[in-house]
Amino acid sequence: MRLINLGGRLALERGGRAIDVERASAGAFSGSFQEAFERWDDFRRWAGDLGDTGGETFDASDLGAPVGTPRQIFAIGLNYRSHAAETGLDIPDTPMVFTKFASSITGPYGDIVMPPGSVDWEAELVAVVGRRAENVSTARGWDYVAGLTVGQDLSERDLQVKPPAPQQFSLAKSYPGFAPLGPALVTPDEFTDPDDLEIGCSISGQQVQHARTEDLIFSVPELISYLSGILPLFPGDLIFTGTPAGVGFALSPQRYLQANEELTTFIEGIGTMRHRMVGRQEQQ
């Protein structure tokens, strides 16, 4: 099942056409992503029983972030072996966790205004929680995932490592637009192997990141288990699972995003996001 946010309304995407959930369900479900997550088992059953209703064509520019109103957004640092290697850091024993604030969420296309400083890219697989999770075993981790989407953990590195100690991860990664998501939310059953997906990122046509999610140090089920063993996860919560090698600060020389560059991010089986980076002085 592929879910999209079309003009602020929850829709099913089938064969490149959109089925408005509220209309197709005769009001049994609203146009709210968050309501679908809160009633995830009921929603899955309804969607599975839905016949071929045709749907309608849509303009991709109308797509928003395919998420609800997350209570919690988790982000995992240093979670690809290749990324740990390029930074020269040891493989962590437990997940390195920080947060991004919800005001940073934006859709899969459009402009992103850059603050002053060194703005870096981080292509990421993002998991959306589908039911409340507490003390979940790794073996059952996928049972608590509503779907997967493409994300970017954009980061302003100057603030992130500002002295006296590099402690501003959350703020440096939460400027408006620094959590683009989309173009669709895809349920795990749609993938041959949801633990092994191709992921990549390019800047104005030049590929800078390319990997597979099998290189994750802590898989999605392991993250669900680890986090839910510390605090409850709620329907609609987001988990940014980390980025592979190829980020700007690890290059030699370092390289950061510039105004008018196009940032393209893709994950196999989900789709591609495209964003034009805009200098703050260009904002209308």
Could you characterize what this model shows?
By secondary structure, the protein is of the alpha+beta class. It has 2 domains: 2-58, no CATH class; 73-279, Alpha-Beta Complex (Fumarylacetoacetate hydrolase, domain 2), CATH 3.90.850. The protein is 15% helix and 32% strand. The protein is built from 7 helices and 18 strands. The strands form 3 sheets. Strands 1, 2, 3, 4, 5, 6, 7, 10, 11, 13 and 16 form an 11-stranded mixed β-sheet that branches. The longest helix is centred in the N-terminal third of the chain and has 10 residues, at 40-49. The protein is globular and about 55 Å long. It starts with a strand and ends in a 5-residue tail after the last strand. The mean pLDDT is 95. This is HpcE protein. Pfam families: FAA_hydrolase. One of its GO terms (biological process) is carboxylic acid metabolic process. Residues 73-277 form the Fumarylacetoacetase-like C-terminal domain. InterPro entries: FAH, Fumarylacetoacetase-like_C, Fumarylacetoacetase_C_sf.
Assigned CATH class of the largest domain: Alpha Beta
Number of strands: 18
* Overall CATH architecture of the largest domain: Alpha-Beta Complex
Largest sheet: 11 strands, mixed
The CATH topology of the largest domain corresponds to Fumarylacetoacetate hydrolase, domain 2
- Rg from C-alpha positions? 18 Å
Query: What's the helix count?
Result: 7
Helical amount: 10-25%
